[in-house]
Amino acid sequence: xxxxxxxxxxxxxxxxxxxxxxxxxxxxxxxxxxxxxxxxxxxxxxxxxxxxxxxxxxxxxxxxxxxxxxxxxxxxxxxxxxxxxxxxxxxxxxxxxxxxxxxxxxxxxxxxxxxxxxxxxxxxxxxxxxxxxxxxxxxxxxxxxxxxxxxxx
Length: 153
Prior knowledge:
The longest helix has 32 residues, at 3-34. This protein has six helices and five strands; from the N terminus they run αβαββαβαααβ. It has 153 residues and is an alpha/beta fold. The mean pLDDT is 85. The protein is globular and about 60 Å long. The chain has a five-stranded mixed β-sheet.
């Protein structure tokens, strides 16, 4: 098999994998989109910090200025689960750098929204992959704004 044939076979396999994963990701997203939990709105970091899945509440995660309802991923992001550390906060930097911490702090809530200007190309690529996944799998319920903005519009 020459190199051109290998490239074509590789592209076909990559496309088939993409279509399969997209189908699996959107299968649940279609059900969620029909029954939105939230109206699209502006959210502050303090607003989303109330939605960590505790007491059976919904779960919100912000990524690069957008807020996603990830409640359908409770098995990942709910209390006691592996990725609960990302729930109720702007998880952009953590997911871009693929790091964990002890959870959202009052200092983090009060700090300005992270501009993410210092991310490396590799970090940005990682964050963009998560944004793509969240955009397909979960409903975007608004945008992240500073508290001085009209957060309820």
